[in-house]
């Protein structure tokens, strides 16, 4: 019995390793603009003004990020005609891992890689840190006017009725 408890505790710790805790959200304030340029593209948040942006910070080495990625892709396909765009910002330090993940998992989203540094407290990367994100996944919903309306901590099933309805009302 003790062995099972230890195993459950370890698995919980491993899953929580990607996300546990948060800094205060900046709900109802302007989303900090940023520009990220990687080997594939250059994207600025301001380029997406007029759309609802689902800004997702993630990494290939994070199991909860991997868990939620298929639902992000599905939601994007389902809702892009309603002016909703997912911007997935990877904080991977290794560009090869990032590109391999996108290819292996057929990720069809607007993605960009902001090189981050993993630490024992989370990830240090300029853009995600400006948002108060140090552990991934974390997602911000930004309205058409550039205002942060909601923050999701940890993995989310983006096809839940409540979330789809919320995004449709923005």
What spatial order of strands do you see in the largest sheet?
Answer: 5-4-3-8-9
Overall form: globular
Mean pLDDT: 86
Helix/strand/pairing category: alpha/beta
Report the oligomer: single chain
Radius of gyration over C-alpha positions, nearest whole angstrom: 16 Å
Please report the total strand number as a whole number.
9
Order of helices and strands: HEEEHEHEEEHEEH
Question: What percent strand?
Answer: 15-25%
What does this protein structure show overall?
A hairpin with a 5-residue loop joins strand 8 (138-142) and strand 9 (148-153). This protein starts with a helix and ends with a helix. It is globular. The longest helix is centred in the middle third of the chain and has 17 residues, at 63-79. It is of the alpha/beta class and 170 residues long. Helices cover 33% and strands 24% of the residues. Residues 2-25 have low confidence and may be disordered. The strands form 3 sheets. Strands 5-4-3-8-9 form a 5-stranded mixed β-sheet, with helices on one face. Strands 1-2 form a two-stranded antiparallel sheet. Strands 6-7 form a two-stranded antiparallel sheet.
Topology at a glance:
Elements: H1 2-16, E1 35-37, E2 42-44, E3 52-58, H2 63-79, E4 84-90, H3 95-104, E5 110-113, E6 117-119, E7 122-124, H4 126-130, E8 138-142, E9 148-153, H5 161-169
Please summarize what this structure is:
About 35% of the residues lie in helices and about 25% in strands.
Properties at a glance:
two-stranded antiparallel ribbon; 170 residues; 5 helices; disordered N terminus; 9 strands
């Amino acid at each position: 019995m003790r062995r099972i408890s230890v195993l459950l505790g370890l698995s919980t710790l491993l899953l929580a390793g990607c996300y546990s805790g948060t800094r205060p959200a900046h709900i109802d304030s302007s989303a900090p603009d940023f520009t990220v340029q990687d080997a594939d593209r250059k994207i600025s948040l301001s380029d997406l003004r007029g759309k609802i942006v689902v800004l997702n910070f993630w990494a290939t080495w994070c199991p909860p990020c991997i868990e939620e990625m298929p639902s992000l892709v599905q939601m994007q396909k389902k809702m892009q005609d309603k002016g909703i765009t997912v911007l997935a910002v990877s904080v991977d330090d290794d560009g090869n891992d990032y590109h391999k993940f996108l290819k292996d998992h057929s990720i069809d989203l607007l993605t960009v890689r902001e090189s981050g540094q993993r630490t024992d407290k989370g990830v240090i990367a300029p853009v995600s840190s400006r948002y108060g994100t140090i552990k991934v996944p974390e997602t911000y919903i930004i309205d058409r006017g550039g205002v942060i309306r909601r923050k999701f901590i940890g993995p989310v099933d983006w096809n839940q009725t409540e979330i789809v309805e919320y995004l449709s009302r923005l």
